[in-house]
Write a structure and sequence with these properties.
The complex is a heterodimer of chains A (466) and B (335).
Chain A (H helix, E strand, L loop, with lengths): L1 H40 L2 H35 L1 H35 L6 H30 L4 E3 L5 E3 L2 H5 L2 H31 L4 H36 L1 H7 L11 E6 L9 E6 L2 H7 L9 H12 L8 H31 L6 H9 L3 H15 L4 E3 L3 E2 L10 H31 L3 H9 L14
Antiparallel strand pairs in A: 1-2, 3-4, 5-6
Chain B lengths: L2 H34 L2 H11 L3 H18 L1 H10 L1 H21 L5 H31 L19 H25 L2 H33 L7 H16 L5 H23 L2 E3 L9 E2 H4 L3 H28 L15
Antiparallel strand pairs in B: 1-2
Helix pairs in contact in B: 1-2, 1-3, 1-6, 1-7, 1-10, 3-4, 5-6, 6-7, 6-10, 7-8, 7-10, 8-9, 9-10
The chains are: A mainly alpha (466), B mainly alpha (335).
Amino acid sequence: MTNDLARWQFAATSIYHFLFVPVTIGLAFLVAILQTAWYRTDNPDYKRMTRFFGTLLLINVAVGVVTGLVQEFEFGMNWSTYSRYVGGVFGAPLAMEGLAAFFLESTFLGLWLFGWNRLPKRVHLATIWAVAIGSMLSAMFILVANSWMQHPVGYKLNSAGQPVLNNVWALFVNPTFLWGYAHVILASLITGCLVMLAVSAWYLRKAQHVEAFGRTARVALIVLIPTIVIQLSVGNQLGVIENKYQPMKIAAAEAQWNSCKPCSFSMFQIGGGANDQTPTEIIAIPHLLSVLATGTWSGPVTGLNQLQAQYQTKYGPGNYVPDVFIQYWSMRVMAYLGSLILLLALWGGWLLYRGKLHSSRLFLGLSVWAVFTPFLMNTAGWLLTESGRQPWIVQGLQKTVNANSPSVSATEIWISLVVLALAYIVLGAADLMLMLRYSRRGLAAADSEAEADQPTSQTPVHALTY
Amino acid sequence: MQLHTIWFIIIAVFWVGFFVLEGFDFGVGMLHMLIGRDETGRRVTINTIGPWWDGNEVWLIVAGAAMFAAFPGWYATMFSALYLALLLVLVALFGRGVSFEYRGKGDTSRWRNGWSWALTIGSALIPLLIGVGLGDLLYGLPINQHHDFTGNFFDLLTGYGLMTGVALLTLCLLHGATFLALRTTDEIRDRARAAARRIGPVAIVVNIAWAIWTLVVVGGGTVPEPTQIFGVIAVIFAWLLSSTDHDGWAFASSGFAIAAAIGQIFIALYPNVMISSTNTAYDLTVNNTASGHYALIVMTVVAVIFFPLVLLYQGWSFHVFRARVKAPPAPADGS
């Protein structure tokens, strides 16, 4: 009971946290590009757009930062057995994250926000790049830690059976980390691009500030097209890597109960819940699963039943099959929505090339609604990753069921679940309200803020930023 | 010196840095309505910490993460024992952290007042609750042979823990007031100094009482530690200096007082990291909670490379925004 509650809490808080993180990483990078464009061309439109999207970035960072605190505390609060067991390995990248990335991101965000007209233009530009790089570094250390839970490396077991770090480099060249990190950064860029594209398309559709938002739509599309193309192949390669180290995860994602060779890919199925081994397949494409999971035309995929037998021999009795329904559908949400976004991006690129971006109302309308897709894909990605690792908390080393805090009662977790849920609803409502409001209020306010930066009297008094 | 000891000191330094830096942010947060009074005044006070509060808060993250990495056993027991207290800290961190960015982005006075209260209450709860937690480390909590906490929420509310929380609260108030006096002009500065003069005597009495209680808890003698003596002297200096024009020295004194307060907890604690009130044999120590040697070496290398860099760019940020914050002249159209 307490274990399930602790799992619900961790899942809910980390999914929520990761709604904001990719927006921050993606927008920080895009805002840095806009400011660089302003620095290079001196075109005031780029400054206005830096301001405009900078505000949206800040609204998101606020929630991203405070919900990140919960994640750091939660390991100790709800998962003390886990923390005590693996802290000697897992804690290191978290501490590195604070020292090498989060300090950088936070300090330079303050410098950027308050530094308009106080810092030389070039230095001020460097501060937003420091924020963008800091947020990506931050994700890097977190992914190092998470990848170690997926595929533990660089450790040996001591006499008490506890993992002890003996090769820190191995953590950073862990294949699960390298591909997983690329996947997360690309996903973040896609999220940022789709947010920027949606806001720009909304204005273009209403024929407001066409010049300025035409530029940001262009920047968003130019970044989005290569990013989504690369992402689809990185996602595919990540599947191959995971199939190697966590075959259960991928077999479950394909609802492949029995070994196959060659394997066809199930496009759509009905059923396939907990123990439903014979779902109704609607469409199956021959050989595609072999290609996706192994990178070869007729590669074999071991089925869940065969893996279950292997695991029982290796780790003792127990159920080692993750939730097939979650795995199957989160994989498809990513793949299908990702493909749709690829089509949208290519269409946008073609319109851009033909100079018709402003006039295609259908494209602009779809682009506004496409803003929901990255959040669905990001959530699906983490569900696939984390649910697919179950029953393990650290693959092969510790089971989730043995990892929670023995001293924390179900009542306490209930209290924290309710309190956090209420707090997150308030935070989310405030964030959404401000995002919509600041997305829709046009450029007048951003312009007046920019004006307020200019010294107006003999003794320079700076505008109150907050 | 043993690596365990070095990491205990590094963690103590992170906690000291957190309270010295974020301490004035808490003080400003608690006092911003009183000292700022009207909307413009409130905004001036909030803007004095605007560029820095976020970076300052990272010291807490790093302190927690360093405990996780260097002393997983300590982190695990402490965070799960302080469960509901930390939940409250988190909620306070939400309200406060978001209020900076969101407060000024609404138009109604209801919106702004709401976030102002979130800032005030959040800024008071965090040092109070963390103070209770740090006090409890030293005073002792029911902990069994597996290093698991066996008590409930009310066991956390020890008299000494609460006293530690109150002592840190008064120090943060004083530190915030001396900071505001240093960072503002005219009436706001006057009000900040008046606040420091009023808080001063309370802080002095509370801190002397707390220092004596600490001696009783630690036991084994009546001679106070030098840190305790200097800490109390620093509180008195901060109070005296707030009647003079030496804003900078007053602020330095209150900062020193906070550093000494956190420092003395960790000095009294070593080589233990968490006392078991059940049985001294179950005490958590630097030795029985530490990570492996190799992990500590790696962390030391990382700290040696990155910590000086952090100090450098945080110091630069303090330098860039060193000018006192003033309200801009009212716009001509009076809006």
